Amino acid sequence: MDTDFSADKQTTLFLLIIKYFSKENFKSLASSVPKTFDNSPLLHQGWIPISHICQINKVKKLISNENDLVSTLAKFNSKYFEMNQGYIKRTAEYEADAVIKEFLDWNVLSSCALHCSGLSCTTEELKEYFSKYGKVVNCARTNDGYLIEFDSASAMEKALLVDHVYEDEPIHVRVQAIQNQVKSLLPLQNQNKILEFELHGDTETLTKQQLKDYLDRLAQVADLDYEPGKTRGTIKFKQSVAQEIIKVAQKQGELVVQDVSIKLLPVTAQQELLCWKVFEEKQKLKPVVMEKKPTKQKLSKKEKKGRVGKQVKKQPKKIKVDDMDKLIAAMDF
Hints:
This protein is of the alpha+beta class. It is built from 13 helices and 13 strands. The chain has helices at 7-20, 26-31, 50-53, 57-60, 66-76, 96-107, 123-130, 153-160, 208-215, 242-252, 269-285, 301-307, 323-329, and strands at residues 48-49, 81-84, 87-90, 112-117, 136-142, 145-150, 164-166, 169-177, 194-200, 221-225, 232-237, 255-257, 260-265. The strands form three sheets. It has a five-stranded antiparallel β-sheet with strand order 5-6-4-8-7. The protein is extended, with a radius of gyration of 26 Å.
């Protein structure tokens, strides 16, 4: 077994602990504790032996010893758990989905910053500009632009949802990963579908449809974040082919449409997750088109008589899969 207890494994392990101690699963966890612990006063107060948790199959595949579990809980400094004499206890009842969302907002979004390019100004001016989306905790120059860090996930999401112009100069904004703690927390069917791109040339006359039609030759495009005049954007493919497209593009050589060259860029796990969130939010902002309900045709007496006695086969109900299970299933063990 791989004994390197990486940040990826720590993240996965913490998500598992959240799941096991959640309102939905805690009774099952408590009832699985061996009878050898029945005499423990801590057990009857809601404490679960750490040694027992370490024997759960999914946990065993991640850790090499109990210290890995202890160090993980210490690292995330969770308000949901406390430890005492080899036992772990949840501090309150909680629903797994709510805690996971909170965890993702903190762990993924706060480990990212916005990278800005395409303009010339002072860091103070840029900080003041982005402050309308939320508190900016840091603004610094980089070799190829600026780095903006917010103090909250919601502020970063607001800044990602709009196009930016400062004193008639377009600001090109993308997610800048500071640390890559997770491989992917997206369900498997949503992974490997997103790429970023850079455009070099006169993009003022390049339309979104022209760019989409060209990229469709590589693979079918589901969505494209681009407007004429922009030099950066994001592609979402219908199939999980993003990494393969990078390889195809490298073999094919320069990609050019309407005298504008295209450079395709891979994304990190954090960028991939954020892109999905931004695409989803933009879909919500689109106006809803109401479709007319088809008018029911009146049946003649003869047609009504012919339908009497026919049994309508009921469609099986769709089973709703728990979001937490999707997240855990999407991870490598």
